[in-house]
Amino acid sequence: MEARTVLPGLAALGTLLGLLGMATPAAAKQDCVGRDTGVRLTVEVGRLKSESGEVTVTVYPSDPSRFLAPRGKLLRLRVPASAPTTEACFNLPKADIYAVAVYHDANGNHDFDRNAVGVPTEGYGFSNDAPSRFGVPSFDSARINVKSGENTIRVRMRYGK
Q1: Is the peptide bond before 25 cis (omega within 30 degrees of 0)?
Q2: Mean pLDDT calculated for residue range 66-81
Q3: What would you report as the CA-atom Rg of the chain, rounded to the nearest whole angstrom?
Q4: Which of 103, 97, 107, 89 has the alpha carbon at shortest distance from 44?
Q5: What pTM did the predictor assign?
Q6: What letter would DSSP give residue 115?
Q7: Which residue, 103, 47, 49, 109, is CA-closest to 77?
Q8: Contact 27/10 with Cβ under 8 angstroms?
């Protein structure tokens, strides 16, 4: 889970201490999933229709064959939905090329629900706002370059009609 959601007191304490020029506690810096390597990716998911359920954010490595494949993920985080924007934070293994897929699991069943003909019934989105009109996007259209240090991307949630 994201420490900003679970431990809001520590985040506020870290901010206060930073304003006072004091060192922040180590726990306040451990607010992302994954081992701290100095490569951090914050994913801001926008345009959520509701605060029901949770938002699942999945990061895929630079191997295109793993993108959206079963067991292909590098990291996954499920965070409570917070409309209109939900954040998830990841410590990544190294600066590299990655891709991100998100969905709004409004009913909280940990599954990306579709109707009988396979059309999504829950919101979804991809890094680079990769197009997905007639199926899933390619890795190349969703790929992002993550550098050392802090990185932030925005993903727009899409909902069916």
Answers
A1: no
A2: 97
A3: 16
A4: 89
A5: 0.80
A6: -
A7: 103
A8: yes
